[in-house]
Predict the structure.
Amino acid sequence: MLASLSDNFVHAATVVVALGMLAHAGEWAFTRERRSAARSAARLASTTRQTSDAATASAAAGGSAAADSAGVAVLTPTAEVAGGEGAGERGESDRSDRAAMFGRIGVALTLLATVLLGAGVVTRGIAADRVPWSNLYEFAITGSFMVSVAYLVTLRRLRLDFLGLPITGFLLVILGIATTVLYTPVSGLIPALQSYWLVIHVSAAVIATSVFTLGAIASLLQILKAREERRLIATGASPAGSYLARLPSAEAIDRIAYRLNAFAFPVWTFALIAGAIWAAAAWGRYWGWDPKETWMFITWVCYAAYLHARSTAGWRSKVSGIALVAYGALLFNLVGVNFFISGLHSYA
């Protein structure tokens, strides 16, 4: 009963996340339209000013009669532009209001999806009479829940509005894979997992992974934004009406990614230490170079390299790439090891 209810909650959350992604896509679309309209209005105003200046110069050279005639010629387009600019401002305001409305809808739907997903995680745990993260399906839905929670908690503090579209897209992909490929019926725990360290070790890993995910998405956007800024400087072009145009500066995104990764790193370190202690209790040794242990350590080294590189002169331009490599190691630790490498953690 509860297991079926949990599945329904997760499926409903997936649908709501999809709607939230569409809402954020609408926010981006109206933002893009608004920027395009603003550029068109600027070009129109510039052309009109040039016409007005030329007509004024002609009137001064042609005498009073010509001046009267030119005055009509000058005033008429100016009045038209004034009316056009007023209409453009009203249209700009309407588009801005619509973009903001879609953004609020997207956040509200993300919040609703988080509540539904949280209900799915809780009912799954009650149905199994244990913590709901003993296999990859449960880790995926719990991790998705924590990613969404981390996003909503830091949304205003770190001004992560620009992450709405990629975050909901990421959640939709993960939940889609979880419900179609990774789904596992409710079952009990194998003896190796029957320990309170399951709660301590895995919960820390889930929290760190969720925040690392936000940091990885921010790092990817930072790379794209920095490339776009270099292109605009080299060509002298104006920003295009694309998703990148509404992002903060590359430097600002880099600071956001750093704060996220710097928070998650000590949590991941704690998860690594807790796993070693659990291994000593379960298998009689702290470290045995099991594939899961090894890749967890590799992930730790990669993120340590990221934090070190960011404070090292000459490496600041490369830190986002290092962060993505570290996140790739994290994903391989979570997924690749379970599917492609046999070890003591193959039950996951």
In short: The chain has a mean pLDDT of 82. The helical segments are 2-128, 136-154, 164-180, 197-235, 250-283, 291-310, 319-340.
